[in-house]
Amino acid sequence: MTVMKTSMRNFLAHKGRMALSAVAVLLSVAFVCGTLVFTDTMTTTFDKLFQATASDVTVSAKGASDTGETTSRTGKPPVMPASVLDEVRKADGVLKAEGTVFSTSATVVDGDLDKLSPSSGAPTIVGNWNSNEARTMEITSGAAPKGPDQILVDADTADKHGLGLGDEIGVITVVGTHHARVSGIATFTVTNPGAAIFYLDTKTAQQTLVGRTGVYTNVNVTAAQGVTDAQLKQSVADELRGGYKVQTAKEVADANQQNVNGFLNVMKYALLGFAGIAFLVGIFLIVNTFSMLVAQRTREIGLMRALGYSRKQINRSVLLEALLLGGVGSVLGVGAGIGVAIGLMKLMGLMGMHLSSSDLTVVWTTPALGLLLGVVVTVLAAYLPARRAGRISPMAALREAGAPADVRAGVVRAVSGLVLTAAGCWGLYAAATADTAKDGSAWLGLGVVLTLVGLVVVVPLIAGGLVRVLGAVLLRMFGPVGRMAERNALRNPRRTGATGAALMIGLALVACLSVVGSSMVASATDQLDKTVGTDFIIQSDNEGALINPQAVKAVKETPGVARVTEYKLLEATLTTPDGKVTKDETINAADATYAQDLRTETVAGNLADAYRADSMSVNEDFAEAHGIKLGSAVAVDFEDGTTARLTVRAITSDDVVIDKGAMYASITTAAKYVPADRMPLDLMLFATAEKGQQDAAYKALKSALHSMPEYTVRDQTDYKQALKDQIGQLLNMIYGLLALAIIVAVLGVVNTLALSVVERTREIGLMRAIGLSRRQLRRMIRLESVVIAVFGALLGLGLGMGWGATAQRLLALEGLTVLDIPWPTIIGVFIASAFVGLFAALVPAFRAARMNVLNAIATD
Fold first, then answer.
1. Could you tell me which residues are beta bridge partners of residue 138?
2. Rounded Cα–Cα distance for residues 130 and 125 (Å)
3. How many other CB atoms sit within 10 Å of the CB of residue 107?
4. CA 839 to CA 820: how far, in whole Å?
5. How many angstroms separate the CA atoms of 821 and 531, rounded?
6. Which of these, 601, 571, 577, lies nearest to 589 by C-alpha position?
7. Nearest to 749 by CA among 799, 787, 798, 797
8. pLDDT tens-digit series, residues 498-552
9. Which residues pair with 142 in a beta bridge?
10. Where is the ABC3 transporter permease C-terminal domain (predicted)?
11. Main-chain dihedrals φ then ψ at residue 184, nearest 5 degrees
12. How would you classify the pairing of strands 684-689 and 561-575?
């Protein structure tokens, strides 16, 4: 009980000093809990949607996916004849059956040809209005579509794009472009996560999406009273006698949820990873806080020991303070986490994914995990300072200064740190010299961990020398004030090192990712310059979307274009000469001119020969694995066609970036074995202008595709910029998430300075008494903060560039051979670190300058 009272008294006595440590715990716990609440809420939202929209039993056409995706490589959804609807109605237990037709391969535009697709990545769905949709949507304006010139729009899409009754809409599909006017607006009665949905009448939907009437993509079946979904499924399956996919509502919902969970899990674990980094940085802050508090209470602890407190009681007292700190920070963090989740929901709403606050899901494991993490991390971080406190002897009460440093512990720490750092450097070297990326990645991971831990351990040894160098470069120009700031930073290398190391972690990751991202862009750009021999690349901005025949025709008829190369992907099963069967292989089918458009290296043969009749190419690894040589025959069983026996005419090098590992054949060869109605659409087109007509052809191509805004024409400069923008957006998102760790590190600098000011209260009073002005005092503390921040930045940026350069060596094994150091980013981060130091020093410097001189001198 006495220990508890002592801990509570000390905690309350230093509550101001504990506040920043509590904020660090709060932020980390809030990020963890916010991530879990947010992803749980998204799961709940999708669960409700899938359960509400699934009929008791769904019959789908052959080739439809389990998730109900109604699209294919041909651009048309898989369909079944309308006669299936009559057969389903005959099955026992059927109350009602209704045919529907939907597609996710359509592009919808307004009257100004602006796309009405969601910005969140959710699908655009076009289908027929039916009673199953009426269960989850209510027409709140206008009426359902009743003719070819009418279309119904969901309310979220209408609000986002300013659509009203009577507005013209164009639906672009592989069949052509269908124009209609908005006849009604329907509002979801469940949460719509962001899909844009458009409804036509049944016949118009069939004609627009498939090109003919009398077909459906699905049949929605409702069970009669007393009939279970499982019984109804069996009855319908028996009636149809195979050939179609029959699923219960639960099976459809589960398949959809499994598909969504893949995305949610990636997002959840990525966010939790950044929260873990913030926790790691927070450990430094907590260790520093308790170390300084223990040092400042050396005499007090010595007196407690003299009065009979045991080492165990002193140790327990400090750990109880940590427990209180972790508990308070974690409880507040759990509450803040719900606020973070709501904020993320609002952010997703701005991006087009609507999540209702009524679906906010907080399961008991989330606050429990947040509390456990916060408390455990805080107590573990305080363990070493607590042990140090327990070792303080009663004689320490008689000393003016704190207890002398443990020289032996310092030597052990230095040796351990150097050994770990050396081992980490060796791991990075092993990664850089590895023969395969798979082997090298394991060494890279080991090297990153060991160099990070090693530097954290050895950083007090480095701090003295590096701070002196920084002092000579940055501080000496400020005269005596600068020299005092340097001495203050050198006074306790362990403290300075720990504070700088907290900042080092976040900046090391920033530097590493910057180097990797910049190198990827530079390598891809270099490959484009070396290998791409065409002027223009035409593709959809929607990932995986295909190019319809109207666009192909428009490109081929564009004046100033000398040649156009079509490029398709076909799925196939291959049987190699060694008798092995490999499934789910992709054949890249293109026109013969693709050999000119992409100058791919070969290790045997000529790529142009692979486009001859009944010929193909394979990649180097595949050839080696299956003993394939020039002239070998490979049986190719096309997924949507028959089996071909193709002769290998070329073996391509794996030392490339573009189309790495691809197997090529001509479209003419593929057309012999795949029926025209099953032939996939083009993934992209390559166009080459007539000599001297590049600028005119570029403008003409854009004009030709103006009415089809889903496609983008890019010359090589545009394509390089698009690659740079994509990687830049990804890096900016990562930098934003790493900002949490940087914020916690800044709190560490603030806390260190604040506690340091308290520790030096008498010294500051004496300096003020002998003539140091308030302005000079504030400058001294700011300069001390800047040198600590710059010290951490140098370590972090240097370490991160080492990691990035090593990672690039692994990427070089995959064809990304250019190492590019983004010096503007590195220099910008370094300069920003100095400003971080200035910002962190504002409050401590202001408090120090406000001290009463006489009271400060009288401080014991």
1. 187
2. 14
3. 22
4. 31
5. 24
6. 571
7. 787
8. 788 888 888 888 999 999 989 988 888 888 888 888 999 999 877 667 898 999 9
9. 184
10. 274-394, 737-853
11. -165, 165
12. antiparallel
Beginning with the edge strand found earlier in the chain, give each strand of the sheet holding 94-100 in spatial order: 94-100, 218-223, 57-60, 245-248
Q: 841: which residues sit within 8 A by CB, 6+ positions away?
A: 749, 750, 753, 781, 782, 784, 785, 786
Name the residue type at position 456.
V
Nearest-10 crossing angle of helices 774-812, 823-840: 150
Structure tokens at 757: 């000011």
Q: What are phi and psi of 294, to 5 degrees?
A: -65, -45
181/170 Cα distance (integer angstroms): 9
Alpha-carbon Rg of the chain, whole angstroms? 34
pLDDT at 235: 93
* Distance (Å) of CA 512 to CA 31, 578, 746: 23, 44, 20
The residue count of the chain comes to: 860
Q: Is the dihedral of CA 520, 521, 522, 526 positive or negative?
A: positive
Considering only CA atoms, which of 103, 115, 105, 104 is closest in space to residue 161?
115
For residue 413, what are its two tokens?
């720490």
Q: How many CB atoms lie within 10 A of CB 692?
A: 9
Tell me what pLDDT residue 403 has: 44
- Whole-angstrom CA distances from 434 to 82, 441, 701, 753 are 60, 9, 46, 45
Q: Of 79, 52, 61, which is closest to residue 202 (Cα–Cα)?
A: 79
SS3 361: coil
Query: Which helix (H) or strand (E) segment is 540 a member of?
Result: strand 536-540
Question: Is the Cβ–Cβ distance between 39 and 137 less than 8 Å?
Answer: no
| Tokens 């308290």 belong to residue | 758
Annotated domain spans of the chain: 1-54+249-404, 62-243, 459-532+717-860, 546-709
Q: Quick check: 635 and 645 in contact, CB under 8 A?
A: yes
Task: Identify the three-state secondary structure at position 248.
Answer: strand
Cβ-based neighbours of 661, under 8 Å, separated by 6 or more: 619, 621, 622, 654
Which amino acid appears at position 393 of this protein?
S
Rounded CA-CA distance 298/261 in Å is 54
SS (H, E, C) 620-689: HHHHHHHCCCCCCEEEEEECCCCEEEEEEEEEECCCCCCCCCCEEEEHHHHHHHCCHHHCCCECEEEEEE
Tokens, residue 52: 């509400």
pTM of the model: 0.81
In the numeric block, which tokens belong to residue 128? Answer: 């027929």
Residues facing residue 198 across a β-bridge: 126, 153
The per-residue pLDDT for range 58-114, each reduced to its tens digit, is 998 877 776 555 567 888 888 899 999 999 999 999 999 999 999 888 899 998 888
DSSP structure string for 177-240: EEEEEEEEEEEESS---S-EEEEE-HHHHHHHHTSSSSEESEEEEEEPTT--HHHHHHHHHHHH
pLDDT, tens digit, for every residue of 593-617? Answer: 998 888 888 999 999 999 999 999 9
User: Which H or E run contains 158?
Assistant: helix 155-161
Distance CA 755, CA 622 (A): 63
110 token code pair: 């307004």
- The two beta strands, 196-200 and 124-128, are parallel
Secondary structure of 282-318 in HEC code, one letter for each residue? HHHHHHHHHHHHHHHCHHHHHHHHHCCCCHHHHHHHH
What secondary structure, in 3-state letters, does 62-87 show?
Answer: CCCCCCCCCCCCCCCCCCEECHHHHH
Fill in the DSSP letter of residue 122.
P
What token pair was written down for 448? 């990153």
Residue pair 230/249 in contact by the 8 Å Cβ criterion = no
Predicted confidence (pLDDT) at residue 13 exceeds the cutoff of 60: no
Please give the Cα distance from 36 to 412 (Å, whole number). Answer: 41
Rounded to whole angstroms, what are the CA distances from 774 to 329, 364, 489, 847, 852? 34, 52, 19, 10, 11
Alpha helices for 709-822 (secondary structure H): 716-759, 761-769, 774-812
Compute CA 409 distance to the chain's CA centroid, rounded to the nearest angstrom.
Answer: 41
